[in-house]
Design a protein that fits this description.
Layout (H helix, E strand, L loop, with lengths): L12 H9 L5 E3 L5 E2 L3 E2 L4 E6 L10 H7 L2 H4 L3 E6 L3 H5 L9 E5 H9 L4 E5 L7 E6 L12 E4 L5 H10 L10 E4 L4 H6 L5 E5 H10 L5 E6 H4 L6 E6 H6 L1 H18 L5 H12 L3 H13 L11 H13 L9 H4 L2 H13 L1
Parallel strand pairs: 4-5, 4-6, 9-10, 9-11
Antiparallel strand pairs: 1-5, 2-3, 6-13, 7-13, 8-11, 8-12
Helix pairs in contact: 1-5, 2-11, 5-14, 8-13, 11-16, 12-13
Length: 349
């Protein structure tokens, strides 16, 4: 089964910089780019981007669509995609490598900047949290989580933060639930009845229900409907990389905007599913339904992917859970000018 690769929300600033300069796992290349030392590709027109999870989920495939459709070539930028076993692995520097850009959960970005790192986000593949809670059939509501086992990556992590958002909405506290840690294997824990509730990406949730139709599981709630202001993740880079490779990053974002527009057109569904099927390994049926949900629920970004309302809300939540003492300012977390220049490039092209 696919791993959802939830990344530790409480990572330190140093860990995020490590993610952006140390990316392990297997890699796919496009456009002739090559990774080297010194923070990604040596060429100023090369962008090495690290994507979490092997294989990726549907939410992650935007750069592969850009690659397959030749959008990187259209905008004259060399892009190398480095696939990681998981974001946690990358954050802890378990394997060596290099990158200019990393797909980073927003709580991790916030906590890194709050710890003094000079890192900024600039575009995303999904601003909202496109994850669902899959639960045993006897759990019908938030209140039913009392006394139940919640599968998480680790305490203080992405799943922990979102679970907390959900169960506190009906008056429960952390003392009312039990956390069980299954990083990257929450779906297996549910099937094997080692946990009662798990946090899964859309395609994972659909896949587990398809593969195990007799398992006593159901989709309890879509979290993007429960916490619509929670910002999920996006592309981020150290300020040094932004300064040194800004033109290449603008082209990278322009190509991703083109890919987003392509993926948002129902006429391109089968082509997108071809890429998704190859990259994720999931069934066509699951991916077909996932594609429809992305369009129906408007999961793709409509602007720079970092709406201030969502970023500020998520930053305040990191204060609430104790990951940072003070919420970083929006301008310290996001560089909107890269998207603005990329959009102008798309419109010109």
């Amino acid at each position: 089964m696919a791993k959802h690769g939830a990344v530790q929300a409480g990572a330190t600033g140093a860990a995020l910089v490590l993610l952006l300069t140390a990316c392990g796992g297997s890699s796919d290349s496009s456009g002739g780019g090559g990774g080297g030392g010194g923070g990604g590709g040596e060429d100023s027109n090369t962008v090495v981007v690290s994507m979490p999870v092997i294989p990726p989920n549907f939410v992650h495939i935007m750069p592969w669509v850009a690659q397959a459709q030749g959008f990187y070539e259209d905008f004259d930028v060399d892009v190398e995609i480095v696939s990681l076993d998981s974001g946690v692995t990358a954050l802890r520097g378990a394997e060596a490598g290099s990158a200019d850009v990393a797909a980073v959960p927003t709580p991790t970005l916030i906590n890194a900047v709050g710890s003094g790192s000079d890192v900024k986000g600039f575009y995303t593949y999904s601003p909202g949290v496109e994850v669902a809670l899959v639960a045993n059939e006897d759990i019908k509501s938030c209140e039913d989580l009392r006394g139940k086992r919640l599968a998480i990556d680790e305490v203080g992590g992405f799943a922990d933060a979102l679970f907390t958002q959900y169960y506190t909405s009906c008056g429960l506290t952390k003392e009312d639930v039990e956390y069980v840690s299954f990083p990257g294997a929450e779906d297996d824990a549910l099937v094997n009845e080692q946990a009662d509730v798990g946090l899964l990406h859309i395609d994972e949730a659909l896949a587990i229900l398809e593969e195990f139709p007799d398992a006593p599981l159901h989709n309890l709630v879509n979290l993007w409907e429960v916490v619509p202001d929670w910002h999920y993740a996006g592309y981020a880079a150290p300020q040094e990389i932004i300064d040194r490779k800004r033109d290449a990053l603008v082209k990278f974002v322009a190509a991703n905007i083109a890919a987003k527009d392509f993926m948002s057109d129902p006429a391109n569904k089968e082509t997108v599913l071809d890429v998704a099927e190859e990259q994720t390994g999931l069934s066509r049926e699951v991916l077909d339904e996932t594609f429809d949900i992305f369009l129906q629920d408007e999961i793709y970004p409509t602007d720079n992917g970092y709406p201030q309302q969502m970023v500020d809300f998520t930053a305040e939540q990191q204060v609430v859970v104790g990951n940072v003492e003070e919420a970083p300012a929006y301008e310290d977390l996001v560089d909107p000018s890269i998207y603005e220049d990329a959009l102008a490039l798309v419109e010109k092209q």
